[in-house]
Amino acid sequence: MNTDATTTAQQYYAWAGRDFAADAYSLALNPQGVMVYTPQLVVMMKPVDSRQPQEWAELAHSPQQPDAWYVHLLVGDMKTARQMAHLVAAYRWVCFQRGRRNTRLHCLPWARILSPHKNTNNN
Predict the structure, then answer these.
(1) Integer Cα distance of 19 and 108 in angstroms
(2) Which neighbouring-strand residues pair with 32?
(3) Which of 7, 43, 51, 111 is least surrounded by Cβ atoms within 10 Å, i.e. has the fewest?
């Protein structure tokens, strides 16, 4: 098992046939986008309107009144991710997909991310 989150992120992008540099650039255009790229943790996320899932993957887009974080990519140490989650706006929801093949969208209460005792599943 690889413990370097940057390598895992690169492997995911290669497997998915996606362009990491293009996604990072798009997220950098978002004034509220968040990107962490360290050996311990890679995160790409942005604020979204949870009722507008068709806009989630547009990384440069930022809604007027977000109520959720869309996690585009998260790999690495979940303990560190939870600690860093306290540094950003606490919206009501966190939204994500579990991989690109499973297109089902998920939204969980943001409070579940902040408290490791309420979320025992690290996926």
Answers:
(1) 27
(2) none
(3) 51
